[in-house]
Specification:
428 residues; alpha+beta; four-stranded antiparallel sheet; four-stranded mixed sheet; 14 strands; globular
Amino acid sequence: MNFKNIGNLKYGLLYFIVLSGIYGCGGGSKGELTGVLNREKWYQADPYGMVYIPAGAFNMGPSDQDVPYAVTSQSKTVTIPAFYMDNTEITNNEYRQFVYWVRDSLAHRLIGGDHLIEEGEYGERINWRAKIKWNDEENEEILAELFLPETERFYRRKEIDTRKLMFEYYWIDLQAAAQRENREQGRTDRSVFIKKDVLNVYPDTLAWIHDYTYSYHDPLTQMYFWHPAYDDYPVVGVSWKQARAFCIWRTQLLNSYLQENGNAFVQDFRLPSESEWEYAARGGLDLSPYPWGGPYIRNSRGCFLGNFKPMRGNYMDDGGVYTVKATSYWPNDYGLYCMAGNVSEWTSNAFDESAYSFTHDISTDYTYEAKDSDPASLKRKVIRGGSWKDVGYYLQTGARTYEYQDTSKCYIGFRCVMSFLGRDKADY
């Protein structure tokens, strides 16, 4: 037998199959380069509660004559692509949806049965259509471990043990994957860039007392996060990691709904970079020291334009003692509320005094994934906007300071952003 001929036969057969595939799957292109036909049309709808921030350039940094501060934070021209931003800080009621989701997911897994959907080798997922019967006698025994033990109950009140509200989430470390020395690794095993974290999602309500020794903040500690009176107030007592976990959960919540309805995924919700935050806070008014313009923090009638500390010991002059509703005061020209005062806001960026000198001038961003073993200086994250307890200087759009990522304060909240897919909404 001539094995060479057999080999040629196999090669010829393969060649025929490949050509048949090419010509047989033309899809009506008639041999022309048409791209993949019948692709899904895309239109990015405005996410609920968010406003569109158009692309643009601005002068990032201090807008006043603070010469010592300008030594380490020089102004620089920065270009920002279009994105969406929450029009208010994340409120107590919005964050409570996250807490309830974690609570209910734990309950569904404990009950099991028709509360879970088998998913082959990748495990199981929750059947959210199944209703949790909290008062069912059989379920009460199963779900008992989610509640405080009797020895820790106050006046025998049956309450969820917030220490059990642990959330497991994942993200891809694209910064590490993009490094030259890691690119080859990414071709062989990309799992090394998939990061995992598990944390408690319940806000630190004791921050109201911890942050202010010798001050009576007990009512806020007990009521601020749970009482309906504070539903529309900004959530506080949330660490940087908790804020990031909220963004990841929010992304999965929306994408799960879109997938069930056969729609394309959206970009991730995330914390804003400090350049995005400052650009949005200025509201299109470049070089303005405040979101409403400036240079004053009162309007023509003498009323304060934000919630901050006007004078020593006097927190009331601006209309609020502590935090106020997230829609208080006038929004800026982009429609964003409380970009100055009320609560300071987490950004995605690591804090470095000289970051402006080495970061890029397009989509300026400086991040660092701090390790537990890192010194405290590497765990600093930029916060912006000033808060109800800050003096007027920190309300300036260009003012920046920091807090440690594993801390939670009664004056720090956050809001989310989402990148816009495309150049401009006008293209649609």
